[in-house]
Amino acid sequence: MNHPGFGIGWKNDRRLTDLDFVDDIALAAEEDHVCQEMTTNLGEDGAKFGLHISPEKTKVIRTSNTSDF
Fold first, then answer.
1. What DSSP letter does each residue of 11-22 carry, written as one string?
2. Which of 1, 19, 43, 63 could anchor a disulfide with 26, C-beta 3.0 to 4.6 Å?
């Protein structure tokens, strides 16, 4: 996924958008609406190859690097 604004800030002005595992993918975003857009795009692109997102297995983990949770 190479889309401006997707992912989280990384080194040298690069962006980390996802971590790929054998049969899983972890998407990373700094804002909720960006995470939703990335998920929608992943679902649409995956469907072209017969892959589908399982809502039952999908998890959202929210973290913060600030103390005002």
1. GGG-EE-EEE-S
2. 19
Token code pair at residue 16: 């980390």
pLDDT digit string (tens) for 9-68? Answer: 777 777 777 777 778 888 888 888 988 998 999 999 999 999 999 999 999 888 876 655
3-state secondary structure of 43: helix
Contact call for residues 9 and 15 (beta carbons, < 8 A): yes
In this prediction, residue 19 carries a pLDDT of 73
The pTM of this model reads 0.67
| Distance separating alpha carbons of residues 69 and 63, to the nearest angstrom | 9
Which of 33, 29, 34, 25 has the alpha carbon at shortest distance from 17? 29
